[in-house]
Design brief:
With 215 residues, this protein is of the alpha+beta class. The protein has three helices and twelve strands. The chain has two domains: 4-51 and 159-213, Alpha-Beta Plaits (2-Layer Sandwich); 56-152, Alpha-Beta Plaits (2-Layer Sandwich). The protein has helices spanning 19-28, 78-90, 178-190, and strands at 3-7, 11-16, 30-35, 38-45, 48-69, 100-106, 111-116, 130-135, 138-161, 165-169, 199-205, 210-214. Strands 3-4-10-2-11 form a five-stranded antiparallel beta sheet. A five-stranded antiparallel beta sheet has the order 6-7-5-9-8, with helices on one face. A two-stranded antiparallel ribbon has the order 1-12.
Length: 215
């Protein structure tokens, strides 16, 4: 998941390729950056991101079940609708289907779950999104999709700390455009003589507020 970080006016975020560079700059604390004809005294700060979430999403696709939606509203008892659905998928013309073990039908949501007797019978419907449904001499189109079981595992909350990223505060406003100032900051912090190193990413904000997302 992505964790947003609020970057305020006259602040910058710099992510370095090497964690050691970021930690060294934080220890140094203050830096004098040459912004064209101006000298800016900026402070380097570590920062903590908002609460983040980690989890694994496990999806199991059934080989015996299919989910059906858009079942037409018919003026016949629910039991008959179930029977007609069973008959329809038992007589599948698509080469799949076969003997039906169970039909679960919900009239309110107009959905159903068809369970076949033979494992793998549902696989024939994977590429079939619309399926003909014959009732009382009329042909309707049902929406067919794989039946899936979804569950979460290893759900964790954590406080995100980016050890490779530093926060610059106190960048003075200049008449230069945002991109030029960002370039000057990048040049300063890329130089090993200033305690810097290779920069992976940089974002500077001269006006307003922006949200930066960390993965």
């Amino acid at each position: 998941t992505t964790i947003p970080f609020r970057l305020n006016q006259n602040q910058a975020l710099l992510t370095f390729e090497d964690e050691e560079v970021a930690q060294r700059l934080i220890k140094m604390g203050k830096h004098t950056v040459n912004l064209d004809n101006k000298i800016a005294d900026v402070s380097v700060k570590p920062f903590t991101l908002e609460m983040g979430i980690k989890f694994e999403l496990h999806v199991t696709i059934s080989g015996k079940k299919i989910s059906v939606s858009e079942v037409p509203e018919l003026s016949i008892p629910e039991e008959w609708v179930r029977d007609k659905l069973e008959l329809n998928f038992y007589k599948s013309e698509q080469g799949g289907g076969g003997e039906v073990e169970n039909v679960s039908y919900d009239k309110q949501s107009r959905t159903a779950v068809i369970t076949f007797l033979r494992p793998g019978a549902a696989n024939a419907f994977v590429s079939c999104t619309k399926y003909p449904f014959f009732v009382n001499g009329r042909c309707y189109r049902l929406s067919v999709s794989p039946n899936t079981d979804v569950h979460l595992e290893k759900f964790q909350l954590y406080c995100g700390i980016s050890k490779k990223t530093i926060l610059l505060k106190g960048i003075q406003e200049t008449e230069d455009d945002e991109e030029s100032v960002q370039d000057m900051i990048e040049i300063h912090f890329q130089k090993p003589s200033n305690g810097g190193g290779e920069i992976e990413n940089i974002k500077y904000v001269s006006k307003g507020v922006t949200w930066v997302c960390f993965e």
